[in-house]
Design a protein that fits this description.
The chain is mainly β. The protein has strands spanning about 5-10, 15, 25-30, 35-40. It is built from no helices and 4 strands.
Length: about 70
């Protein structure tokens, strides 16, 4: 299990990870038409067209060829 991450306020009034796996990542609160929170959005990884080779110790996902 990954260690917990804490989030704190940014100068603009948002939230960002202060430590752990999400350090520096922005946490966005998505709100409905009435202004109530409906979802949290956290992007912890950026993907590129060339992800490079997978580490040898990580098994392929179920159903993957290889």
């Amino acid at each position: 299990m990954a260690p917990a991450s804490r989030f704190g306020r940014t100068p603009r009034g948002g939230l960002a990870g202060v430590d752990g796996a999400y350090a520096g990542e922005e946490l966005r609160v998505r709100r409905g038409p009435d202004g109530r929170p409906v979802a949290l959005e956290l992007a912890g990884a950026r993907f590129t067209r060339d992800p490079g080779p997978a580490p040898a110790e990580v098994p392929p996902p179920p159903g993957a060829a290889g």
